[in-house]
Design brief:
This protein has helices at about 25-40, 65-80, 100-110, 165-180, 250-255, 320-325, 330-340, 345-370; strands spanning about 10-15, 40-45, 85-90, 130-135, 140-150, 190, 205, 215, 225, 260-265, 275, 280-285, 300-305, 315-320. By secondary structure, it is α/β, with parallel strands linked by helices. It is globular.
């Protein structure tokens, strides 16, 4: 990868399409409009490209890989039809379809000539590697670097796996190799699916009674949050960051040498914000898929613009369905209902209990009426 002749380089992050064989036309409309409008130099897909747990992939047998590949073909077409390079990592749901991330990476994605990156040595699976971006003059010197990390899947017993220590060791080795090559630490951005535990450090803990307070779960059980002061005015927090229960020190490693400017994730479909903790920006990008829950027509993509003359800074913004396509969707009732659905099992439990409580109250009221009337 190389900066443009004007010294810029534009990345588009697309996350949580979470699609099925019958891909939503709204998902495709958003992706087509976003790529056409922004003309990125590189598209980075940060996981949950497919709804791996979806019933529409079940029972395919030997035809499963072909079915997944056909879905991916549709989703990538706005990018591949234009010859735009792309990179891919994985979320917690991709492998749940029954095809490993390694096989998805090499059997499906790498069949496209425009798919960049090779799996990191010593790290299992697929979706962990780095992409140096060279100067525009063709000198071959890396002036910026991108890391893609496979952040794992669901943990046994609930929650999400802790970040793989092998990836942390590989990152440190790669970071130091880039320094040896260029003479200094190379400014970098990390892309992965599941947020780091430190994402709670860019939020502000508030009382349950405060308007707009978002309830958290598991390691932050009984706590409520809103966006912190380092986040932007138009940023969005509509669900708690779903982090691993165990912190394996990924953030500490990324913050050691000042090379990592930012981390951008997906996973929690309705969130779209960037906040700063210590020396790193921590960003969420909203989902883009209409066959899973999301923030309705505020689904979108994120753009990140680099400048080779100012490699230690960047600009970022999102493009949403309502501004690129419009306010109408093909299945408004489905879209409304899924926007109200709980995002996780932990979030569903209090809703179920509240529902059972309401039913119990109605039953008691009926019994009292029968008794006294």
């Amino acid at each position: 990868m190389r900066f443009r002749s004007d010294g810029t380089f534009k990345i588009m992050q697309i996350t949580d399409m979470q699609e099925i064989p019958a891909v939503s036309p709204d998902t495709l409309a958003l992706l087509e409009a976003a790529v056409a409008a922004e003309q990125p130099d590189l598209v980075v897909y940060t996981g949950d490209q497919i709804k791996g747990y979806g019933v529409t992939y079940k029972g395919k047998g030997a035809a499963l890989e072909a079915a997944v590949s056909e879905t991916i073909d549709k989703l990538l077409k706005p990018v591949t039809s234009r010859g735009i390079p792309f990179a891919v990592t994985f979320g917690n749901h991709d492998r749940q379809v029954g095809i490993s991330n390694h096989d998805q990476f090499y059997h499906i994605y790498k069949k496209y000539p425009s798919c960049v990156g090779e799996q990191a040595d010593g790290v299992d699976g697929g979706g962990t590697y780095n992409i140096p971006i060279e100067r525009s003059d063709g000198s071959g010197k890396p002036v910026f670097n991108l890391y893609l990390f496979d952040s794992g899947t669901d943990a046994k017993g609930g929650g999400y796996e802790a970040f793989d220590p092998k990836i942390i060791a590989w990152y440190r080795k790669t970071r130091d190799a880039l320094k040896a090559q260029s003479g200094d630490y190379v400014p970098s951005i990390v892309f992965q699916h599941i947020p780091l535990p430190e994402y709670y450090n860019v939020l502000r803990r508030v009382k349950k009674s405060e308007k707009g307070a978002i309830q958290a779960f598991r390691t932050h059980k009984h706590e409520f949050y809103k966006l912190g002061e380092t986040c932007g005015q138009n940023d969005v927090l509509l669900e708690p960051p779903s982090i691993p229960d165990k912190n394996n020190g990924e953030f500490d490693a990324l913050a050691e040498c000042g090379d990592v400017l930012a981390v951008f994730v997906g996973h929690d479909h309705k969130n779209s914000f960037v906040g700063r903790y210590q020396n790193i920006d921590l960003g969420f990008t909203q989902s883009s898929g209409f066959n899973a829950y999301g923030n309705r027509t505020k689904r979108g993509v994120r753009c990140i613009v680099l400048d080779e003359n100012e490699p230690h800074s960047y600009k970022t913004y999102t493009r949403t369905y309502d501004e690129l396509v419009g306010t109408k969707v093909t299945r408004p009732v489905f879209d409304y209902l899924t926007s109200k659905a709980p995002a996780t099992v932990d979030a569903a439990i209090p809703m179920i209990l509240k529902g059972l409580g309401a039913v119990a109250a109605v039953v008691i009221l009926i019994l009292l009426l029968v008794h006294f009337l």
